[in-house]
Each structure stands twice: as C-alpha cells, then as structure tokens.
Design brief:
280 residues; alpha+beta; six-stranded mixed β-sheet; two-stranded antiparallel ribbon; 18% strand
Length: 280
C-alpha cells in the first residue's frame, strides 16, 4: 500500500503527543548495497541565532518535530507582508503576492513558498521537486534509491510524475522530459502552462552562500559535492505571531525524517531484487 504524508499529518503532529516520533521507513525495492543519502535542512530566517531558536522552540518543542539531520541557515529572510494560514496559489506563486524574500529563495526561484523539498544527484542536478504537503513516499523513496544505486553509472531514474497539468508540487525531471516529448498544448505553450515545471528540474541547482549553525560560512555546492542529497528549505522566522500560520508545513518534516532514517541511517530494509545495472 502506498504511503502518503498529507494535511492530516499536521493535525496528528500538533494534537497527538509523539506522533512525529513513530518508527517508520520507506520500502526499498533492491537488495543491492547502497550509500547514504545526504539530508540537509536550510532554514530561512533573520539571522543565525533566530533560526536556531525557532527550530528548537517552535519546531522541536512546540510541534515536536524530529530534526536530527544537519541544517544550514540563510540569514537574509525578510518579511514583506503578513503570512496567511490559507492562501491561493497559481503555479507555485501566491495570488496575493510574495510574503517574504531571501537569497536562496530568489536564487533557486522558489516563489516565496514556505517549504521546498529537492532531491539532487551527485552532479548537483535537481531530479525531484516538491512544494506540496501530500507526498507519495513510495515514489519519492524510489527516486532516492535509484540515484543511490546509480543505474548504468548515469544516475538514471524511472519515476515519472504524471501529466504536466497535474504535476504542481511533486515533479521529477523524467516527468518533465516525458511531457516535453508529447506534442500537446501543455508542453509547447510558453504561457501559463509552461510554468507548471520547476525551472531547474534536470539542471544544476544554483549555488548560494549559507551559514552553519555556529555562524560559519559555507556554500550550498560544497555541501552537495558528489553526494545524492535531499534538501529541505523551510521558513524559520523569529516572528512568533506568524508561527501558527506556518505550522501547516510540519508534515514535510515528517517526509524529510522518513528519508533520513530510511536512507541515511539505513533503517529501510533491503528488497529482494538484485539490480545488475547498479553502480553505487
């Protein structure tokens, strides 16, 4: 049965003690040995102390979210207007305008979304992209496992992401490539429908300068170097009056934790099939 993390997970996280600490993992399909996934968080905040405080007080203490993987900080976050608990979005952009700005948001063209999950290969290319609260863990886990297996030495994946007009949020570069092969109005129209696909799918993710938790300088590309990575970019504003309006993003942390425990700590049990084309 496919596992999905969605809006209901938010209610569980907020109202049920310890829900985020339930043991679970993605299901592997291969019996091959694989390397470790590099899971990194990037907190957009007003500064290093503000990010550390918000993560500890709000995410870990109040929402009881487990963030055991390392995280970096973009200290350039600036609020532009009040964040709404419910907003209308067109192609990833708020209909009421940008609520904040930050260097990583601008460089990666994330459209001031509260959270973004990127799966990146060893060559720093974006292979999967999500800005949705409902994530198919089976397919997401398969993308990660295939990249770790390094199929044919080419980091090939087999996970499509459906029709382009249904790909808002969950996308893969294979889904984008397959869509471009279909001569439909969705793929060759450079108007609204052309905005369905994330710009950097299949491309090298832009480099940005970030901060470590202790205030040191680090560049995103240095953290990604020759590693299959899952990068969770999220808002960690110090403005407490906005905390409950961004609390709904908590379910994406459950997804990141699943990936960390399954493919970094190795809790996902190997499958039964040896994949001969694997070159991990």
């Amino acid at each position: 049965m496919k596992k999905k993390i969605g809006v209901a997970a938010v209610l569980i996280l907020i109202f049920a003690a310890g829900a985020a600490h339930a043991d679970s993992s993605c299901q592997r399909f291969s019996a091959n040995p694989i390397g470790k996934l590099n899971v990194i968080g990037v907190a957009m905040s007003q500064g290093v102390p503000e990010a550390n405080s918000t993560i500890d007080e709000f995410y870990r203490k109040n929402l009881r979210i487990r963030i055991d993987y390392d995280y970096l900080i973009d200290p350039t976050y600036r609020q532009l207007q009040a964040q709404k608990a419910v907003d209308i979005s067109f192609f990833g952009k708020s209909a009421t305008g940008r609520k904040f700005s930050s260097e990583i948001d601008t460089a990666l063209e994330l459209n001031a979304n509260l959270y973004t999950l990127l799966i990146i290969d060893r060559q720093k290319r974006v292979r999967a992209f999500s800005q949705t609260l409902t994530v198919d863990l089976d397919n997401l886990g398969k993308v990660v496992e295939e990249l770790l297996l390094n199929l044919d030495g080419e980091e090939r994946i087999t996970v499509d992401s459906g029709a382009p007009d249904q790909a808002l949020g969950w996308q893969t570069d294979l889904g984008k490539a397959n869509a471009l092969k279909k001569k439909t109005r969705f793929t060759y129209d450079f108007g609204a429908s052309g905005k369905l696909w994330y710009k950097y799918l299949g491309e090298v993710v832009p480099d940005v300068e970030l901060k470590t938790k202790d205030g040191g300088n680090v560049r995103l590309h240095d953290v990604l170097n020759n590693k299959v990575s899952a990068i969770l970019i999220f808002t960690a504003t110090a403005e407490k009056n906005t905390w409950m309006t961004i609390g709904g993003i908590s379910s994406i942390f459950v997804v990141a934790d699943e990936l960390y425990r399954s493919f970094t700590l190795g809790e996902a049990k190997p499958g039964k099939t040896m994949v001969p084309e694997a070159r991990p």
